[in-house]
Structures are given as C-alpha cells and as structure tokens.
Design goal:
Two copies of one chain form a homodimer. Chain A is an all-alpha fold. Chain A contains nine helices and no strands. In chain A, helix 1 (5-24) packs across helix 4 (52-75) and helix 4 packs parallel to helix 7 (116-131). The interface between A and B is large, with 38 and 38 residues. The first copy, chain A, binds a DNA duplex through helix 1 and helix 3.
Chain lengths: 174, 174
Amino acid sequence: MSPGRGERTRRALVLAALAIIEREGICGVTHRNVTRAAGLPATSAAYHFDSINDLLEQALMWADGQAVEALVAIGTAPNPVAALSTWLARDFRQERPRLIAEYELYLYAARTPSMLPSANGWLTGLDALVSTWTADRRAVRTVCAYIDGLLLQALVSGEAPDPEELEAAIRDLL
Amino acid sequence: MSPGRGERTRRALVLAALAIIEREGICGVTHRNVTRAAGLPATSAAYHFDSINDLLEQALMWADGQAVEALVAIGTAPNPVAALSTWLARDFRQERPRLIAEYELYLYAARTPSMLPSANGWLTGLDALVSTWTADRRAVRTVCAYIDGLLLQALVSGEAPDPEELEAAIRDLL
DNA sequence: TCTAGAATTGAACATTCGTTCAAGTTAGTG
DNA sequence: CACTAACTTGAACGAATGTTCAATTCTAGA
C-alpha cells in the first residue's frame, strides 16, 4: 500500500528540512524555508508538525534510520571491519554536508530530551555491530567512541580519514 | 594595562553569547538575546561585531583558548594521562551545558571557514599533548579521535565517562 | 454515489529579527 | 583645558518569524 497524502507530504517536509540543515544548519530550519524548499505553502509545516522541534526530531529519526540500515548491511558483508572502514571514508568524501547535518542533529539531541531516543539509535546500532566482533564490552565502547570522534574531527579538520588506517586501528582495538 | 571600554564590552557580549548557547543553542544567539543577557542595549552587538557569525567566532575562540589552557596545564601535571582522564570526566559531570555549547560551536565551524582556525585550536592542542606521550603519529590520531568521540557520545547517551576506563583505554592505545 | 474527516491553502496577526541613523557620552591626547 | 575619536544608546525601518483562522479541495469508506 502506498502512503497516504499526509504521509507523503510529511516525508517531503522532512527531506526538505534535511536539505536545509545540510546547506545552512539547524538555525535555517524555519516553516517558510522548509516549505519553500518542498514547494508547499508556508502553513503546511504547522499543520503536519507540532513545532520546529518536532520536525527536527522526525528529520533525525529519518537520518538515523538510514544510518542504522547501512550498519546492518555492513554487518552482513563478508569482511565487516573493512566494509565499515571504507563506508565511513567514502561517506565522508561524498556526503560531507549530509554528515555535518547528521552530527548537528545528533548533538542537538543532547539538549532535547524528546530527540534522545533517535540519537541513541546510531549509538546502539554501532554498538551492536561492533559487539559481533568481540565480547569485550570495554573494547566495544572504545571502538565506538573512536569512530564517532574520527568522523567529527575529520569534519572539523577537513582531512579525509584514511580507510586503511581506520581499519588497522579498529583491528588493534578489538 | 586594563582592557579599554570597548574590549570589556566585547568580552561581556562574548560571555553572554556562550551562556545563551549553553541554555538554548546557537540558534538562540540573536542581537537582542545576547545584549539582554549582558544588560546592554540591543544596538551594542551590531556596533562591536560585524555579524552574528563574527560573534560566534569570538565565542569559539574564547572557549577554545580556555580549553587549550587547560590542556597545557595538564601537560605539566605529574601524571598527565591520569590528569587528562579525570579532567575530562569531571568536565562532563560539572560542565555538561558548557561542553554541549563548545561542541556545537566546534561543529558549526565545520561549515564556516572563518571559524576553522579556532576549531583546530582544540584539535592541535590535544594532538600536541598526546604527542608528548608517544612518537607514533598513528597512535596520537587514534587517541585524539577516541577522546573527542567519547565526550560526544557521553553527551548524547547521558552516561558519564568512567575516568579509570578512560585512562586505561588511553594507555592501551599508546 | 454521498459524505464525513483529513488535507490543503491563502490571508492576516503580533513578535522578533538584523540593521541603520543620529544624538549623546566618555576617555585619552595634544 | 580643549578636542577628537571611540563608544554608547534610543528610536525606528523593513523583513522574516510562528501561528491562527476560515474557506476550499480531496479521498476513503458507508
């Protein structure tokens, strides 16, 4: 069954919001900016979402779902560690604005209780993936922190992460 | 010599901006919000700063300076690794809002070229500190990424980092 | 086919936004 | 002391904000 009218509009607004966060950051997410990007009247955002925070929450939920989906796919790859490393490196090179947007939402969730569940999706998804490689909980936490820090620092420093060094570092930590 | 009038006002506005970012996030930084928090007329912000971005840049520069100062002090401690670990853990517990604000500015710099130098201050400061512990550049990068990721994930998950595990992890990586 | 409820949309609201301008005050220099 | 440049401040501007409301269109189910 195809999604109803409302559902389709909601998704269009969420995607438009993500596009705006990529381009201008969270501060750029306003009713008019989002609806203009989606080619919809300004009142559409207020009808479908309780607030801007609600819209941001849906955007984070969507982006988080995408990321977790990718993590699951990586988990079924023949060489998961290598797959994760190359995925992260390629993600950085080709989707830098999207990555910035996701981290912005990710961090925004730290001060917005209603968004925490979605933010923890990535966290637990990554934890679950790494947990299949070792039983050492401490090592899992270290690897997960390392990965998030690597991406964050790559975004700030502008230097793309080296997939080989990344893979070697993960193997060392396991 | 004491700072001039203008300099003192500028600093008051920068501190007010940081306080607002702690409370509401970067989106809350407007001329009127900042000046109200500083007890100054609304036009004061426009006079002393070219734009909101300029004000945010000064705020990041200030916070970055503070952090680097702390890193230098840690470098001279008898047991630097332990000092860094306890400092990070305590910073998280006692200064969570400040930490969120700093990371928000940190990430904001990723899409704002003029802010990149300030953002890289923390990055290079941390790198310099860790570099005194090992000559292995790869290990330095791994430790730095691990630390940033640990703080970020702690902010999102809400779980305070354990200083002992943190110290043990750093020692393992060296 | 008819209809009730969901969805859409344009007009309009009070606020807040960044910015400009001119008048005023202050502090340092000759 | 006088003077100049830096600083301060209140008023006001057009533009953009979130939100409400009523009128309209659409669509799924009886």
